[in-house]
Amino acid sequence: MRGWMRTAVDRRGFTLVETTIVVLIIAITLSMAIPAVTNITHANLRASARKVAGAIRYTYDLAARKNATFRVVFDLEERKYWIESTGDRFLLDPEKTEVSDGALETEERPRFLRRSFVESEEMWKPKSRPSFSRVSTPLSKVAELPEGIGFQTVWVAHQADSVRAGQAYLYCFPTGMTERAVIHLADEDENVYTLWVFPLTGRVRIYPKLVEAPDE
Fold first, then answer.
1. Using one digit for the tens of pLDDT, what is the confidence trace for 130-189?
2. Are the beta carbons of 180 and 168 closer than 8 angstroms?
3. Of residues 114, 124, 127, 149, the one with CA closest to residue 40
4. Which domain does 192 fall in, by range?
5. Domain-located, residue 19
6. Which residue among 7, 29, 44, 100 sits deepest, i.e. has the most Cβ atoms within 10 Å of its Cβ?
7. Per the domain annotation, does 171 fall within a domain?
8. What is the pTM of this model?
9. Is 161 within the bounds of a domain?
10. What is the CATH number of the domain that holds 102?
11. Cα 77–Cα 82–Cα 87 angle in degrees, nearest 5
12. What total number of domains does the chain contain?
């Protein structure tokens, strides 16, 4: 008889009080875990901004040191970026590259022209588009942004508008100049970091907020 009563008690499951305690424990655990995950994501966003800024500065230094044109390629779809260079003469056209549906209509278009080159016969000779290839150094490998973080927009001075899809290009020249650029990195919680590139020095200032690109 006593054995039967003990079995019946064992089979009745959790009481309302016990269930409430379990639910409270789960709620407290989740409330502690969510901020921790958010902090990790924000830390990844901050670290990613610093790494992209470092890649830009490294490319700027490479262009001056190697006496060649280099560029940072931002792939907004794949959330990746890498460095490329060309040994060909590369000039940027005064006309800005048009952006359609958030993507560049064409690949890059040149921009800076020297008067001596304009007055020479070289300018009028038929030319093929300069060929860029990926740079192979320990510091220039293809880098991928962490999960949940991506390039929101990339504005570079040779573009007519910000790029939101496809690829964008930031050029660094052997003359010790780059282009003015504003790059936005964002996470899934809509936190944004802004990278502002200064053309004369290659310096990159990082803002832990959204700073709009210049209206040009």
1. 789 999 888 888 999 999 999 999 999 999 999 999 999 999 999 999 999 999 999 998
2. no
3. 149
4. 2-207
5. yes
6. 44
7. yes
8. 0.74
9. yes
10. 3.55.40.10
11. 125
12. 1
